[in-house]
Amino acid sequence: MKAKHNYKKARCEYNGVYIKDQDGTEYAADALTIGKLYKVVPPESNDPEDDLRVIDDSGEDYLYPAKFFVLID
């Protein structure tokens, strides 16, 4: 999946064990709810192609592996 996308929402299908901060630091992922819809925000220039930037339950945007989500038009 390419990082450049037009999706506005994504449904969480899996809550893995980590998220990556902009500098690549990994944190425990406790801010996703399986089945919940999340807003997808445009990727930043240095975001990996296989990640999505979503606004999670904390209200902030973070990178998550795209495989955690089903994208919705």
What would your notes on this structure say?
- The chain has 73 residues and is mostly beta strands.
- The chain has one domain: SH3 type barrels.
- 0% of the residues lie in helices and 34% in strands.
- The chain has no helices and seven strands.
- The chain has strands at 9-12, 19-20, 26-27, 37-39, 51-55, 61-65, 69-72.
- It has a three-stranded antiparallel beta sheet, with no helix packed on it. Strands 2-3 form a two-stranded antiparallel sheet. It has a two-stranded antiparallel ribbon with strand order 5-6.
- It is globular and about 25 Å long.
- The mean pLDDT is 82.
Key features?
73 residues; mainly beta; three-stranded antiparallel beta sheet; two-stranded antiparallel ribbon; 34% strand; globular
Concise description?
The chain is 0% helix and 34% strand. The protein has 73 residues and is an all-beta fold. The relative contact order is 0.35.
CATH topology: SH3 type barrels
- CATH architecture designation: Roll
| Beta-strand content bin | 25-35%
Give the helix level as a range of percent.
under 10%
Number of strands: 7
Low-confidence runs of at least 5 consecutive residues:
none
Lateral arrangement of strands in the main beta sheet = 4-1-7
What coarse outline follows from CA principal-axis ratios? globular
The assigned structural class equals mainly beta
* Mean pLDDT value: 82
CA distance, first residue to last residue: 15 Å
Please provide the ordered H/E string of secondary-structure elements. Answer: EEEEEEE
- Count the DSSP helices: 0
Gyration radius, in Å: 11 Å
Largest sheet: 3 strands, antiparallel
Number of folding domains? 1
The top level CATH class name: Mainly Beta
